[in-house]
Amino acid sequence: MRKPPSIRSLAILSLNKWEKGHVYAESLIQHASQQHQLSPADRNLLHAILVDTIRHLRKIDFWIQQLREGKLDATTRNTLRIGLCQLHILGIPQHAAVNETVNASQKSTRGLVNAILRKSLREAESLEKETSALPSDIQFSHPEWLTTRWIKAFGKADTRTLLEWNQQPSQTIFRLNPLKNNVHHLLDEIEHITSIPHYPDFFISEGLPPKAWLEDGLIYIQDPATSHSVELLAPLPGETILDACAAPGGKSGNIAAAMQNAGQLTCTDSNPKRLPRLEENLARLGVTHASVEEWDWLNYPPERFHQKFDGILLDVPCSNTGVLRRRIDARWRLRPKDFTELQAIQLKILENALICLKPGGRIVYSTCSIDAEENQLLIKTCIAKHPKLQLVSDLQILPQTHQTDGAYAAELRLSP
C-alpha cells in the first residue's frame, strides 16, 4: 500500500497550487483532508502551516532573501516558506519542523533546505532585529499599494494597527439564535466563552463550540460586524423583506429573528451552487417564512419583484478589505483596478434592487469593505443619480477601531 504523504508534503503541494492563483487556501485544506482522510489533529496542523505561511508571506520571503543568495525554483521556495513558518511563527519544535520539512523536500534540494533552516535558527536574533526595522507593508505582509492606500485614508498609526489586526488568527465567534427557545442556558454548559461588549448575543469561543449546537441551529458562527446592516434595516413582523445576496444565510437568520418568523422573507443568490447550503442553514436555524431562489441582481429584476418589498438588504460583492484577517487569500488576489470594477458592479446591483422597493420603503446597502470607493462614495454617486432616494444613516465599522471585522452599512429610503 502506498504511504500517504506527510503533512509537510501536503503543505508544499497546497502552496504550489495556491500560488497559481486559482484555488483558495481553505478549499485546498478541505480537499487534502478529504482525499487523505486526515485526522482532526493533522488537519489542524496543515491549516496552521498553510494559512500562517500565506498570512506572513512577504516577511517570510524577506527572511529567505537574507538567508540565501541566488534564485530558487518555486517548490524549493515554498518548502523554505513552510519550514520558516513552522520555526519562527508557529513555534513548532525545531527537531520536528526541520526534519519533517527536509524529508518532504525534493531529494536534490534536501541539503540546501536543511542548511537554510538551520542557518535561520542560528541567526534568529538578527533576523528578528532586521524584521522590526522593515516598512510596515513587509513587516506585516500586505501589498505595498494597499498599505499606501490605507495610509492616505486612515493615517500611518491607524494603518499600522489595522495591519497588526489582520495578522492575528481569526477568532471563533458565534451568536445565539433567538428563534430557538431558551438558548441562553447553553452558556452555562461550556467553559472558555467570552461575551462581547455591545453585542449581547455574540460570544467568543476558545475552540469550536459543541457540534450539536451548530447542527441544531442553536447558534450560528458569525462576526458581530454582520449585525449592523440588519439593525439598520429593522425588519418587522408581517413585512415583506428581500435578502438579495443571501448565501450562506447568516444575515437572513438575523432578519428572520427580527421578524419573529412572521411575514414574507425572500432570499436570493446569484450562484445556484450556494442555494442548497442557504436552504439548509435557514432550516437549521428554524426559519419558517422564507423562500429561496436563484437571481443575479446584475440583471434587470423580474416583474413579480417590482415594488414588492418593504425593505431590502443588499450585501453586495466587495473587495473584502474589512475581513482580511479572516479571508487569508484576499489581500494577495486584490488589485488596484478591482475597486473601480467592483464599484460599477455594486452600483448596478443597487439600481436594479431599487426597482423592487415599495414607495416609502428602505434599502440597506452593505459591504465587508473599509474603502470609501465601495461605500460612502458609491452611496453619494447613487443618490446623485436618484433624487427620490435619501440617505437616512450610515455606519462604517473599522477593525482598528472597533476590534471586529470591518463593515459598512447605509440605510436609504425611497420617497413615497
Cα-based radius of gyration, to the nearest Å: 24 Å
**Spatial arrangement of strands, main beta sheet:** 7-6-5-8-9-11-10
The fold-level CATH name of the largest domain is Rossmann fold
How many domains, as an integer? 2
| CATH architectural arrangement of the largest domain | 3-Layer(aba) Sandwich
In whole angstroms, the N-to-C terminal distance is 72 Å
Overall mean pLDDT stands at: 96
CATH class of the largest domain: Alpha Beta
CATH superfamily of the largest domain: Vaccinia Virus protein VP39
Number of helices: 19
Which geometry do the CA atoms define? globular
Helix content: 40-55%
Which class do the helix and strand fractions yield?
alpha/beta
Count of strand segments = 11
Order of helices and strands: HHHHHHHHHHHEEEHEHEHEHEEHHEHEHE
Beta-strand content: 15-25%
Task: Briefly say what this structure is.
By secondary structure, the protein is an alpha/beta fold. It has helices at 7-19, 25-35, 40-55, 57-67, 74-90, 94-104, 110-122, 124-132, 136-139, 144-154, 156-166, 211-215, 227-233, 250-259, 275-285, 330-333, 337-354, 376-385, 399-402; strands spanning 172-176, 193-196, 199-205, 219-221, 240-243, 264-269, 290-294, 309-315, 357-367, 389-397, 407-414.
